[in-house]
Amino acid sequence: MFRVTVRDHVMVAHSLRGEVFGPAQRLHGATYVVDATFAGERLDDDGIVVDIGRATTVLHEVLADLNYRNLDDEAALAATNTTTEMLARWIADRLADRVGAGDLGAAARDLAGLTVTLHESHVAWASYERPLSPT
Amino acid sequence: MFRVTVRDHVMVAHSLRGEVFGPAQRLHGATYVVDATFAGERLDDDGIVVDIGRATTVLHEVLADLNYRNLDDEAALAATNTTTEMLARWIADRLADRVGAGDLGAAARDLAGLTVTLHESHVAWASYERPLSPT
Amino acid sequence: MFRVTVRDHVMVAHSLRGEVFGPAQRLHGATYVVDATFAGERLDDDGIVVDIGRATTVLHEVLADLNYRNLDDEAALAATNTTTEMLARWIADRLADRVGAGDLGAAARDLAGLTVTLHESHVAWASYERPLSPT
Amino acid sequence: MFRVTVRDHVMVAHSLRGEVFGPAQRLHGATYVVDATFAGERLDDDGIVVDIGRATTVLHEVLADLNYRNLDDEAALAATNTTTEMLARWIADRLADRVGAGDLGAAARDLAGLTVTLHESHVAWASYERPLSPT
Amino acid sequence: MFRVTVRDHVMVAHSLRGEVFGPAQRLHGATYVVDATFAGERLDDDGIVVDIGRATTVLHEVLADLNYRNLDDEAALAATNTTTEMLARWIADRLADRVGAGDLGAAARDLAGLTVTLHESHVAWASYERPLSPT
Amino acid sequence: MFRVTVRDHVMVAHSLRGEVFGPAQRLHGATYVVDATFAGERLDDDGIVVDIGRATTVLHEVLADLNYRNLDDEAALAATNTTTEMLARWIADRLADRVGAGDLGAAARDLAGLTVTLHESHVAWASYERPLSPT
Question: Which residues of C touch F124 (CB under 8 A)?
Fold first, then answer.
């Protein structure tokens, strides 16, 4: 299996709902350093599993919808308790949509799956790994 | 699959038994930067795979039994050649016990597995990955 | 010159005032990974420039006043545009007060200065370096 | 599953063939920080999955064939478009040959697989994971 | 003293002239992860030492002149043995020119100096620190 | 000012003398990731401040005298409370001796100073900076 990862980041405010979160129920914020990993069994004729330039661009575009925002006020996340796990899945699903729409190019057609990892500090991170359907 | 990782560290002395270890057969020591990764297919009603606060606390407690010690003198490790691999498994098994005892909370009941990684330097690390039984 | 650094982090919401900040004028947030560096010309009789345990504790206490908060609502920061530079100075000045109050112990009496560095992402950080007066 | 990883690096010039690579079609270069991960279900009698000293030596030897070279001029890579993915596989296959030849020692006989990760910058990396046949 | 650092990277081919460089006299390459640090005694009215957005853009523009190139063929570097130290100075001097030209904005007028650090691998890096004249 | 840094590591056992050290008075251990920084105002005719290959070799040799040892039993350190600060100075002074003896080559003759940083974990490190006399 081949895997290619690109890194970007996003800076957001939010609050978490549920007693389990203690002080993180207050409005606070985070920098998430975001790694998007694209996995595939085969390389295309150029010898790549995904165009790293397009992957970088698409990840940046997906994060732009969150960046410098208060997630508590975003309609797209109104039904979401924006834990690190939930955000990882939300970003992974947006990236999967973009792969399906052909935005990552021909090489991405054979991708088997993708993983999104959000580093919330130097001592904690979370990820969501999901399969991709051939298109 | 969702995964949450928390990081801590432990500073120990030890020696290794076996000619393969060369100079590491002498009494020496290591800082292990320890990553504990908890994996689960589903999020609980709060949107988490594990309570990151509890995970941090339990990892710290497990490491406290080793920290600032000479592992050659620890009864709990008397039968163990304390290689990085063996320590990774020992810590993973202690964490699994704590999950089983309910110390990581309700969210941890559905965990599918955990991985413990010990970084012994900037150029070498080892991990042990094991499944968890539903409780 | 000897220098000792300890690392912790803080997760906050805030907004910045001024057109120069563009989208960061909106309410957003950040994880700051915070390094506090203590500098001194001489070691004490124990061979340390500062008690690393106390330094870790005092840094954690200073950050606790900011952690999981919206800085826009904090009275102590009402007059402060909470840029990374300003926060670095604010934290450094709080640490200097604690050194002056003797909270870092006898070894800290001869400290010559301290530096606080705030990493706001993997691609940007800021620091403030200031002298300390002998006490 | 146990995994042991060792890290080294290699500095090369090369150019990539294909319009998808844009400016990287020009002769340029890269430092690849290379992680070789060895995975096995069982530990040997010494309590290791692989001799970390031998793993470090063999990885260094494999990289020595590439280091400080223009890959466009290397006969061994003449048929290879030297993308990060392709180089990861090339290195992994060389390491697999060395495992098969017994160069990683008795402990390596039961290895189940290996993964080679090439970090081309702080924001992009690629890996190739392959199984190993018991010898 | 306040300091702000932004990070980017550049991927180049080159060779070094001089027996001291051994195999690095051959055409090879490097990824340089580049940190540009801007230092100033005072903050401007916005509370910044430099506009981090502009600093990021200007660093990227300076590196674009080198990126994906063979430095041996660049007229601007014809007289330069492109060691890591020399490249750090070359980049720092270009950045100083841009500060002087006002491209980093009003806040940058009071900068006291800047430092450019080039990381050539995980185990080696070099930097050049220079003063800036008030403009 | 130019600065060149090379990184290596050392794994040792030791205990610390003094109540301030709490549990670190027990025999324990550490991995120190060691950065040696060489600073000079001028480059030599080859365009370097120090031969990075020689710097790497000499640092490795200095650390070899400590590696895989119990520092409590080392005659050379019998009078030393082996705190991170003290070890940083000890290593820096050994490196200064080697510069004085000409072991870092002609380029090192004009070095102005050196700094040794010991990272004892991901959250704590210490350094010692000292001048060098022209030879």
Answer: 4-7, 52, 56
Residue of E nearest to B122 (CA): E122
Tell me which residues of chain B have a pLDDT lower than 70.
Answer: 134-135
Flag whether residue A18 sits within 8 Å of chain C, measured between CB atoms.
Answer: no
Report residue A107's pLDDT band, with 50, 70 and 90 as the boundaries: confident
pLDDT, position E134: 65
DSSP single-letter state for residue E5? E
CA angle A10-A68-B53, nearest 5°?
55
**What is the distance, to the nearest Å, from the Cα of residue A63 to the centroid of all Cα atoms in its chain?**
8
Nearest partner of B50 among B114, B94, B125, B126, judged by Cα: B114
Strands F111-121 and F28-40: antiparallel
Q: Give A7→chain F minimum CA distance, Å.
A: 21
3-class secondary-structure state, position E100: helix
Residue carrying structure tokens 């670190």: F24
Entry field: residues in chain C: 135
Phi, psi (deg, nearest 5) at residue B122: -75, -5
* pTM (global) more than 0.80: yes
Which residues 86-125 of C are in CB contact (within 8 Å) with F?
105, 107
Picking from E61, E79, E84, E78, the residue whose alpha carbon sits closest to that of residue E12 is E84
Those residues with Cβ within 8 angstroms of residue F82's Cβ, 6 or more apart along the chain or in another chain: C47, F14, F16, F71, F72
B123: distance to nearest CA of chain E, Å? 9
Question: Do D86 and A47 meet the contact criterion of CB atoms below 8 Å apart?
Answer: yes
| Nearest CA-CA distance, residue E108 and chain C, Å | 13
Contacts of A78 (CB under 8 A, 6+ apart): none
What does the pLDDT read at residue A135?
A: 54
Secondary structure of residue F95 in the 3-state scheme: helix
* Residues in chain E closer than 8 A to B123 (CB atoms): 122
In order of C81, E21, E39, the CA distances from E3 in angstroms are 17, 34, 4
Closest CA to F29 of B77, B70, B117, B74: B70
